[in-house]
Amino acid sequence: MTTKSLLALTASLCMAFLAGAALACAMPADLGALRGELLVRTNAERGTQGLPALAMDTRLGDAAQIQACRMAERERLSHRGSWWAGLGRRLRREDYPYAMAVENTGVGYRDTGGIIRGWMDSPEHRVNMLSRDARDAGYGAAVGADGRMYWSMVAAAPRAAE
C-alpha cells in the first residue's frame, strides 16, 4: 500500500469518527483529513524509532478537539480547558479509562507537516510523540478569531479491564 493510499484510507476512517462532540468553534472544513494526516505523520515518526503505530480513538479525538476549541476561543495555548479542567478530567468525561495519557498543543502552524515538525523539534513534545506506552491517539484543530490554527494531540493507553 502506498503512502498516498494509506493517507486516503486513514482520512476516510477519520471522517467516520467525526460523530463526536459538536463544538461551537471554527473548525477546519477538512478536519477529518487533517486528523488522518496527523496520525499518518505521527506513526511515520514513531516507525523511524521502531515504535508501534498508534490507533485513532474517537474519545481521544473529542478530548483533543475540545482543547483545540478552548485554546482558539481564548487565543492562547494551554493544557487547561473549561473550568481549568486538565487532561485527566477531559478523558474521564469522554469515558476513556486511561492508564497513561499525554497531550501536545501548538498554535500558528499552517499544516500538519508544520505542527508535527514543531512537536518533534521540541524535546518535551517529542517525548510525548514517541511515548512507548501510548497505544491510541486523537487530534483536534480549530481556527481562532486571530486567524491562527490551534492544534491538540492526545495519546494514551487504556487501563486494563478489571
TrEMBL record:
Domain SCP: 41-153
Top-level lineage group: Bacteria
Phylogenetic lineage: Bacteria, Pseudomonadati, Pseudomonadota, Alphaproteobacteria, Rhodobacterales
Pfam families reported in the protein's UniProt record: CAP
Keyword Signal on entry: yes
Keywords per UniProt: Signal
Signal peptide limits: 1-24
Gene3D superfamilies documented for this protein: CAP
Transcription keyword on record: no
CDD domains to which the protein is assigned, alphabetical: CAP_bacterial
Protein name, entry field: CAP domain-containing protein
PROSITE patterns referenced in this protein's UniProt entry, alphabetically: PROKAR_LIPOPROTEIN
Organism whose genome encodes this protein: Pararhodobacter marinus
